[in-house]
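ugh ok so i messed up the first submission bc i forgot one of the chains. this is the corrected input, ALL of the components this time, i swear. 820 residues overall. if the numbers dont match what u have on ur side tell me asap before i send this to the collaborators (the ones from the other lab, u know who)
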Amino acid sequence: MGKQINVALIGNPNTGKTSVFNALTGLNQKVGNYPGITVEKKEGVCKLPRGVKAHIIDLPGTYSLNASSLDENVVIELLLNKNDKDFPDVAVVVSDVENLKRNLLLFTQIKDLEIPTILVINMADRMAYKGISLDIDVLEKELNTKIALVSTRKKTGIDDLKNLITNFRDLPTQPCLNAREIDPDYFTRLQSAFPNQLLYKLWLVITQDVNFGNVSRKEVDALDDFKTKSKSDLKRLQQKETIKRYQFINNTLKKGQTIDLAAAKDLRIKLDRILTHKVWGYVVFFMILLLMFQAIYDWSSIPMDFIDGLFASMSEWTKDHLPQGQFTNLIAEGIIPGLGGIVIFIPQIAFLFLFISILEETGYMSRVVFLMDRIMRRFGLSGKSVVPLISGTACAIPAVMATRNIESWKERLITILVTPFTTCSARLPVYLIIISLVIPKGRFLGLGYQAMTLMLLYLIGFGAAIGAAYILNKVLKIKNRSFFVVEMPNYKLPLFKNVALTVIEKTKSFVFGAGKIILAISIILWFLASYGPGDDFNNAEAIVTSQYSKENLDTETLQQHIASYKLEHSFIGLTGRAIEPLIQPLGYDWKIGIAIVSSFAAREVFVGTLATIYSVGSDEEDTIKNRMAGEVNPILGTPLFNFASGISLLLFYAFAMQCMSTLAVVKRETNSWKWPTLQLAAMSSFAYIVALIAFQVLK
Amino acid sequence: MNTIIQNILVVTALVLAVAFLVKKFFWTKKASTKSCGKDDCGCH
Amino acid sequence: MQVTLAQLKRGQSAIITDVSSIHIPLKLLEMGCLPGNMVELVQVAPFSDPLYLNINGSHLAIRKETATHILIEITNG
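and heres the new structure output, hopefully the right one now
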């Protein structure tokens, strides 16, 4: 007991590496970030035979140890740094039986680092279907390793893998390729300069700027002498290395693998004939998008109404049952409505991630990338920008991170800059509540006006993103090499477990991540709304009572007048009043102003803020929506949320950059304050102008 | 007595909330050392 | 005249004879785009760009511009 084996799961994308990880760890997993960078770090614990425990890290998918992105860099940095606490005792390379040849390239690279390595051949259930047969004994001998034939779908082979991990000390560590073969002269010189270092490690360090633990700073400087070879010379050597590796792999597979092409069936070709078709491909894509929005808007409205009502009655219950006082008020008027504003999100977020993870899992997303590349390039984007733009409908933060696989820096930068225009789920509650207030319920050709408005807002978001990209593409002067490589993986039925875990994980991190901020902001808002400076606030009761003394009001109405007077003279009321001249031309009052200001921390605060403010403003229990409908514009005397101000507000939220977390991520991904500042300034002033025009024209 | 406790709780909650937000948005801004910079920096 | 991958028609296959390694990302080489390997054009997107290829058993898509740096010898078609 007590000993824990460090296991690193490594593999190409689309090999089912995550399924293996899920099969090994089940629910014993947690997702975090690597320190300093926003690459997802998945780790879990797995119980092995004989009471041994394994600490398993699911490393980002990579095609080789020659990192071409931040995510891939994580893999090589860990494997080169023996002092890292996560440095693996054993590496498990996950491969896909249908792409064994390509997958083995990465395997030979890791083997050459002389780390004990196990090869997992996943998706074994597809062997017969593809006419593949393997001679495991021969492969084990040729590759000098142990192999686990696994099918995560059929749940076979996992126990074999666990046994292999337990006995990792028996694994041979001979390399597959002698690095010297690549260029004998050059590598002999390199080895004699660093006799104590592994040759392949040195080579990796030379070809990419990664430091590793036990080469001291001085030696790394000395390594620079070996970079005298020009970049193209180094690349030629890398090409030669790759050819050598494939020679070795081809020889191995010739002995250990037979493929009966006559027995192989290929669903991919048949499906791709439709899904990547010039016309049908787009039709299918559009239908899928339509279905997605239907789910988000229509299907999730039932649980959302329920949650809305639930939190309203919770507030009421708290007030009735807890001892009276300021803290009880804080709970009933600040915390509970604030929390309600985030919990109400859960159904929609879950649906969004459900769709996105199914599209990723099935392999369909790559086809979308393929279909859209030419069109997107016209706007300075890449086909791969489609994935961030679609994930942006969930949240811009993971979307900005999803740009990492875009090869060209210019295309990547433009994608990062325009992604926040897509309608993220934080805008959704704002849209939903305003739409339900200002857009009539009627139907046209079977489509509800409200649903159509929502669809339109999504299109406006995409349109703004594409338009901004077009302008940026013309304005930004960055020289650009446009590389574009995307794998078209085989179609697979999504594994329920994978999809479910993704949905749970993403929803959880969203609710808890955003939830904490919203909770904190609602507490502060409540405080600012419940306290105020000076006599106006503190003597509100006396002032209002004398004001209405002649009118003989009943106590309830009088109380309401007092409360609204207090709110107007509270800290928040004064702030709102101060910015009112700025937002009045847009058709908003000071209460909306406060909601907008607090939205700059995170948009989803909007509904919670209004809930808090209105809850403070009156006493009777009611849902947020009804209360908003009753608000009157103090100047025009019309309902505050009418068609003109509603549209203006919708457009403001569609374009404004109101998310501190996104700005922080953009800063991190672009390594400069310049780009997030540009985003904030350009998007928000554009939003203001558009909202202004909309209100002035429609009112 | 009861009012005092309630007020203390309110102030505590407020301080916690402010501290959390300050920490969230201003404290964690330690610049990351490794990131794809403006140029290609070997990332492509 | 040298034939490049960009000239391949849908359904045709070829053998890669040379790649200009300066213009081709290492990642593509590592995915099997190397001299001597088979390549088949599976599908083209609208405006005949990008190209959906089967190279050495790997299914991947690259842009036409990249394909012009890969020399081939057509084997059927």
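quick check: Residues 26-30 of chain C form the longest helix (5 residues). that seems consistent at least. Chain C touches chain A through 31 residues (CB under 8 Å).
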